[in-house]
TrEMBL record:
Keywords: Signal. It comes from Flavimaricola marinus. This is Lipoprotein. It comes from the Bacteria. Residues 1-26 form the signal peptide.
Length: 137
């Protein structure tokens, strides 16, 4: 129950903003949009290695051309998440994280010019929990 509460609290804390997901594309991002995303990545990188709340640790943050990548680790195992509603957790976390990023004007501009945000998460043993690519706020 504690893990479910932590997972749901994290999803709610991140805002649960609506977003759309899609398959990867190779659309180049404009130079101005790519430059604008650098500040977002730098802010994320300052939190690498920290628990950002709800038992979620930011493992990595980087921009690679038209993709901003953020990797996380969650305290629950894949089996524990399955028991409490893994899909609900994945959707809530992804939407909340990307929604919080989209509050920075550089992120919608980045996505509008072909950029995407990739969110990955693993459990404590390194087993994949989620991998999502979001292309709009």
């Amino acid at each position: 129950m504690m893990i479910k509460n932590a997972a749901l609290a994290m999803a709610l804390a991140l805002g649960l903003a609506a977003c759309e997901t899609s398959t990867p594309t190779a659309t180049p991002v404009s130079a101005s949009a790519a430059t604008g995303i650098d500040g977002v990545v730098a802010a994320l990188q300052a939190d690498v290695g920290k628990d950002i709340g709800g038992g979620v640790t930011l493992l990595s943050a980087e921009a690679d051309g038209s993709t901003l990548r953020a990797g996380f680790q969650f305290v629950a195992t894949v089996a524990q998440l399955e028991a409490i509603g893994r899909q609900e957790f994945e959707d809530g976390f992804t939407q909340g994280f990307v929604g919080s990023l989209c509050s920075n004007p550089a992120v919608p501009a980045f996505m509008a010019s072909g950029g995407a945000v990739e969110v990955t998460m693993v459990d404590p043993a390194g087993a994949p929990i989620l991998a999502r690519r979001v292309t709009s706020c």
